[in-house]
Design brief:
Helices cover 75% and strands 3% of the residues. By secondary structure, the protein is an all-alpha fold. The protein is globular.
């Protein structure tokens, strides 16, 4: 029974990582930006979700309002800051987004982020349900289903929309995309906005589980980078598989070996992947 419980918790963690990592993958795939500020956007989503819930906003509306607000913040940050270093070496974006993450975290500290805040689970999602003889917390099942549905919706939108066509073109061949008249700046504003929205909605969904405070996104960010590396830089399909692999490794490792050993096991896997399969699970990732 312990193994079943750990597997379920690993799927929940993988679902949170799925939404979060897809945003990181989109930004890197289109803009070649390693975004260390992504974790701070997760924290904004979690804290904003708690605040909105405290104002009496229903959960379903919180899950809509929060990603819209944070998505706009992300688009504005790209327009005001990231666009200024678009064509510089990748290390510049790493340093800039790291500083931006510290700046946002400082603001969140001043807005109450020093204290751990709890987001209550809606009454209709409380309790547990039994499926095939196994007892599952309803809210954690909801988070997993939400992540799968949103990820599937994103993939369908990328496949069937004009915006998705431009994103895929910029991801596969940026130079050719530019020759075809794709407005890279406007595309990047929208991509960063969508990525920020994904980080925010994962923060809101995870708030009743991981709580909400200024640095809650830091651990998720580390795990997300491991996810992106395992899946392959810029590979959305790889990020989906890697998110659940990382979630299961962390939860099973913590359950049987302890937290530090779980991280060590994950780092060993990442190092092996970088050495032997640098393009990720499906061989689609970039090697810069």
């Amino acid at each position: 029974m312990l193994a079943i419980s750990l597997a379920l918790n690993g799927i929940v963690l993988g679902s949170v990582l799925l939404l979060f990592s897809l945003g990181l993958t989109l930004i890197y795939g289109v803009g070649r930006i390693v975004n260390f500020a992504h974790g701070a956007l997760f924290s904004i989503g979690a804290m904003l979700g708690v605040w909105l819930a405290g104002q009496g906003l229903p959960m379903w509306l919180t899950l809509i309002v929060t990603p819209v607000v944070v998505g706009l913040i992300g688009a504005m940050l790209d327009w005001a800051i990231l666009a200024r270093i678009r064509d510089r070496p990748i290390v510049d974006s790493m340093l800039l987004t790291f500083g931006l993450a510290l700046f946002i975290t400082g603001i969140l500290y001043e807005m109450g982020g020093r204290h751990v805040q709890m987001m209550p689970i809606p009454h209709m999602l409380e309790g547990a349900t039994t499926i095939f003889g196994f007892t599952l917390p309803v809210y954690r099942l909801f988070v997993s289903l939400l992540a799968v549905m949103l990820a599937a919706g994103l993939f369908l939108f990328l496949k069937n929309s004009d915006w998705g066509l431009r994103v895929r073109a910029a991801n596969d061949d940026p130079e050719m995309g530019a020759c075809l008249g794709i407005n890279r700046e406007m595309l990047m504003h929208s991509v960063v906005g969508v990525s920020a929205a994904l980080a925010a909605i994962s923060g809101v969904a995870a708030a009743p589980i991981f709580m909400a405070y200024a640095t809650v996104g830091d651990k998720i960010l580390i795990l997300a980078f491991m996810t992106v590396i395992l899946g392959g830089l810029g590979s959305l399909r790889g990020a989906v598989v890697a998110a659940y692999v990382v979630g299961l490794i962390i939860v099973f490792g913590e359950g049987y070996l302890g937290g530090q050993m779980a991280l060590m096991l994950l780092f060993v896997l990442v190092m092996a992947m970088l050495i032997s399969w640098p393009r990720g699970f499906f061989g689609e990732g970039r090697t810069e």
